[in-house]
Amino acid sequence: MGNPKAFLEIHRQEAGYRPIHDRIHDFGEVEQTLNTHQRREQASRCMDCGVPFCHWACPLGNKAPEWNDALYRGDWELAFRLLTSTNPFPEFTGRICPALCEKACVLNRFNHEPTTNREDECAIIEAAFREGYIQPRVLARNGMSVAVIGAGPAGLAAANALNRMGYAVTVFEKNEAAGGLLRYGIPNFKLNKAIIDRRIALMEAEGIAFRYGEAVSCAAILSQSTPHFSAVIIATGTPTARDLKAPGRDLKGVHFALELLSQQNRVLAGMEFSKADRITARGKNVLVIGGGDTGSDCIGTAHRQGCRSVTQIEIMPKPVEGPDDPQNPWPNWPRTLKTTSSHEEGCTRRWNINTLEFLGENGQLTGVKVQEIDWQPNPDGGRPIMVEKGKPEIIKAELCLLAMGFLKPEHPDYPENVFVCGDDQNGASLVVRAMASGIDAANRVHAHLSQKSH
User: Fold this and answer.
1) Whose CA is closest to 242, among 372, 403, 394?
2) Rounded distance, CA 393 to CA 370, Å?
3) 114, 163, 261, 269: which has the fewest Cβ within 10 Å?
4) Is residue 2 pLDDT above 80, yes or no?
5) Can you tell me the distance from the alpha carbon of 410 to that of 403, in angstroms, rounded to the nearest whole number?
6) How far apart are the C-alpha atoms of 46 and 6, rounded to whole Å?
7) pTM over 0.85
8) How far is the C-alpha of 153 from the C-alpha of 195, rounded, in Å?
9) In the predicted model, is pLDDT for residue 454 greater than 80?
10) Distance (Å, rounded) from C-alpha 30 to C-alpha 135?
11) Distances (CA, A) of 232 to 45, 292, 415, 432, 450
């Protein structure tokens, strides 16, 4: 800890976003960066706590006090080595992680100015690529091979870990490129896809084989004689979105959120769609059903496509307007109201709203009938009871996007050499948790195969 008084003398400084009038006209990343001096100043604020709650809160167990100290002292290479000892892809988490570590930071408890861990780790990994600290490794092989089904964050983390343990790894991906929701769910204005391509190129240079456009099953892989895989990791995520079975659901203009998000990302990658198949918010009133991050991504995408207006509704009550959450106190994650960069760009937000019916003319959506509701305690315990409040109303909309989460997959009993990880195992969650689960699956594979080989 180079400067024991920094947290008292230096305030938290975030890089912030590009101006709204500038960023809504393109899909470039909205977040800006601090200069090197400012970044080192922010790293100096880390207090090297005796009990580092940031480490406790991070699913990957990142050693923030250690790499923040190295960053403060200007040893960027050491900071990179410390960071990547626990985090295989800081360029992803440094851009899109909600930073559980920052909410658990002692400075967040002290004055709500936690260390800027997320931005710091992004700066460190970008410096590592820029300065050439990252080079493909020549890895010794142990003669065994493993198949990974799914190239999302969990599958990529598992493949990366196994490859460095000496296994020959083949990743099967149903889509035309790797990344999973990193590529086909998260908009480019939060994560430029060149960042994914750069990482995949490095993984390929280190020996990992990627096979795209192959929606293979675990049974099909295990039945193959050539090549023979000693183990299989299933990391196919949560592909089934939660639907809303209200009357009028089949009207043109009602879509799952990922239909819009994945198509827009593909358009930016050069793929073409017919006018009939193109989902666009241009000139339309847009309604987003669902108050989470996916809904927020729809809002930002709708603005960039040229929408007329955006409304976001959520069936649950409005979260407490923080920074503290009495029901979930520090160092736990506070369930407080979150305002994203997309919300700042313009959006009507409403809570305790239930969707009753999709309305349309000539098969095309024109509006959505909704009703304000309330939640009352259940006398028998368990989930609160939803009760009507007020009269139904109609929200004008020509495009409605369903962003209500995803269903956790159900799996049969697999052979002992098959392992499930990520959202496939735990249900929809954070990218950082998926990565941690992928690493855990790789360790379980290694333990299993090591035991078998003796």
Assistant:
1) 403
2) 6
3) 269
4) no
5) 21
6) 8
7) yes
8) 13
9) no
10) 28
11) 44, 32, 10, 22, 15
- Which residue is listed with tokens 């809303």? 244
Burial of 67 per CB tally in 10 Å (0-12, 13-18, 19+): buried
The rounded distance, in Å, linking the Cα atoms of 250 and 319 is 32
| CB-facing half-sphere around the CA of 166: CA atoms within 13 A | 8
Structure tokens of 27? 């899909």
- Among 247, 177, 244, residue whose Cα is nearest residue 213: 177
Distance CA 377, CA 367 (A): 32
In SS3 terms, the chain reads as CCCCCHHHHCCCCCCCECCHHHHCCCCCCCECCCCHHHHHHHHHCCCCCCCCHHHHHCCCCCCHHHHHHHHHCCCHHHHHHHHHCCCCCHHHHHHHCCCHHHHCCHHHHHHCCCCCHHHHHHHHHHHHHHHCCCCCCCCCCCCCEEEEECCCHHHHHHHHHHHHHCCEEEEEECCCCCCCHHHHCCCCCCCCHHHHHHHHHHHHHCCCEEEECCCCCHHHHHHCCCCCCCEEEECCCCCCECCCCCCCCCCECEEEHHHHHHHHHHHHCCCCCCCCCCCCCCCCEEEEECCCHHHHHHHHHHHHHCCCEEEEEECCCCCECCCCCCCCCCCCCCCECCCCHHHHCCCEEEECEEEEEEEEECCEEEEEEEEEEEEECCCCCCCCEEEECCCCEEEECCEEEECCCECCCCCCCCCCCEEECCHHHHCCCCHHHHHHHHHHHHHHHHHHHHHHCC
Q: Residue 166 class from Cβ within 10 Å (0-12 exposed, 13-18 middle, 19+ buried)?
A: middle
Here the tokens at position 240 are 């089934």
Are 280 and 305 within 8 A, CB to CB?
A: yes
Q: Cβ atoms within 10 A of the Cβ of 266, count?
A: 17
Residue type, 236: T
Asked if residue 293 lies in contact with residue 438, where contact means CB atoms within 8 angstroms, the answer is no
Structure tokens at 103: 């909410």
Residue whose tokens read 């408890």: 109
Which tens digit of pLDDT belongs to each residue from 411-420? 999 999 999 9
- 165 token code pair: 């343990």
